[in-house]
Design a protein that fits this description.
The protein is α+β, with helices and mostly antiparallel strands. The chain has one domain. It contains four helices and eight strands.
Length: 162
Amino acid sequence: MRAYTDKELSDLVKCVKCVVEPPLKLLKQERGSKRNNMMLQSKDGEYRFRVFIRQCLEFEEDFSVGLDYFPKDEPGSICLLRCNGQHGGNQVFPHHAHYHIHQAKAEDVNAGIKIERYVQITSEYASFRDGLAYFLTLICLEEVDKYFPELKQKNMFLSDSE
């Protein structure tokens, strides 16, 4: 396996992406959650990605929206980024009580560690809808409105200035 740098991983997250296999119009229910996926590639066609979307049926603020990268010359994938909702904090994982972002770091990827251990609590979103919108902006997805038209609908509880 080749060695990555943090800049390379960050560049993979930030490169402009287009949809090659669109998501389903509705999330499908499976094993206690609503799920969806879509396949992407970088605009220049060099890199392949998968977006996964998971939302708990019982507690909608328990969600995960992530970006997997598929290296050309290696088997498997690397999860570069996950925007997560709240899913119950405890002493071992206190960040689970907050909205948070997991990000892959080169040190872990190069060591074969599959869990994105770098975690940042965020106030950038406070719902599944806002977390999805934030994630799609972070990964630089083109034509978001085409695949997620519900994200451009205004919230009736916010004024136009908010």
